[in-house]
Amino acid sequence: MNISGSEKLYPLKFHPIYMERVWGGTMMSEYLSRELPPADAPIGESWELVDRDDVKSVVSNGGFAGVTLQELVQKFGASLMGRAAHGRKSFPLMVKLIDAGERLSLQVHPDEKACREIGGGAEPKTEMWYVIANRPGAEIFAGLSRDATRVQLMEMLDSPDVDKLMQTYKSQEGDAYFITSGTLHAIGAGNLILEIQQNSDTTYRVNDWGRLGTDGKPRTLHKVEGMKSINLMNRVSPRIPRAVGKCSFNRKVDIVKMCPHFKVSDLRLCSVWQDDTGMESFHLVSAVKNRIEVGRDELKAIVVPGETVLVPACFGHYTITPLDEGEATVIKTTL
């Protein structure tokens, strides 16, 4: 589709891209009322926003409907992404929904140093998880426990008991987890998670709990690359407890503040929220609980739970308006 220079950028929504995963679940349909496409294997992920050569988000609303995010980045550059993108040629972040019917593999993402050592196109990845919903008994495994040693990890890497070396948390709606590159982790069964991450698809799987893939064969493990990537020095708890309290006024809790790759805030709204992109960065506005309307004047988008809208950096002042009774939960991400 040809993009002229006359169109005005507006809050952009995108078609979800569903990914079959052997561990996938049914929580997207149960909790978000998503109509999932027919699939040969469970749907485990929805890529809500992505700009990669092999997978590209497509705009679903307004005058740019049918245009890819990649085309918009190429056409509008800093007007779309902002000064903080420093002239990047691709959109710097990805947004996913993770629907874990079974426990995901024990895995790790490399940092820049590990990527240089490993090579082969490896890309660094730091990510943030926000628990949209969880089934009773669901758990999160994130980071090595304080007492776990490298020797113990090597000895137990093939064992189903390796999770005993992990920091383990009871999953709770509204909790967040900041998973820096180098953090060993696994999302437990029964979790529906919003994931914000660097634009990377590099994952090193070190234990898959004896599971077989959809082809009936064990999935590939990446133990050598994984051990090169794990940051054994980092034993900080990655959990950020949920915001609590009754909604008598709008509240903002910064979940991720000091990360060089993205900033994330948890907004609890009971009335109109005023915001401004200021040309510094785009804003990703994700609805978690209750519907919201995002934009200004005639340039608005209705966002339902699970959806993310991209507010371009050049858009300036806009509002987030709760549309349903009760408190709206919104996750806002910027560079």
Class by SSE composition: mainly beta
Shape: globular
Mean pLDDT rating: 96
Number of helices: 6
| Beta-strand segment tally | 21
Please provide the ordered H/E string of secondary-structure elements: EHEHHEEHEEHEEEEEHEEEEEEEEEE
What proportion strand? Answer: 25-35%
Q: N-to-C terminal Cα separation, in Å?
A: 28 Å
Query: What is the topology, as strand order, of the major beta sheet?
Result: 1-2-3-10-5-8-12
- Specify the biggest β-sheet: 7 strands, antiparallel
**Residues in helices, as a percent range:** 10-25%
| Unreliable segments of 5+ consecutive residues | none
Fold and architecture overview:
The protein is mainly β. Helices cover 12% and strands 34% of the residues. The protein has 6 helices and 21 strands. The longest helix has 8 residues, at 69-76.
In short:
With 335 residues, this protein is mostly beta strands.
What are the salient characteristics of this protein?
335 residues; mainly beta; seven-stranded antiparallel beta sheet; 6 helices; 21 strands; 12% helix
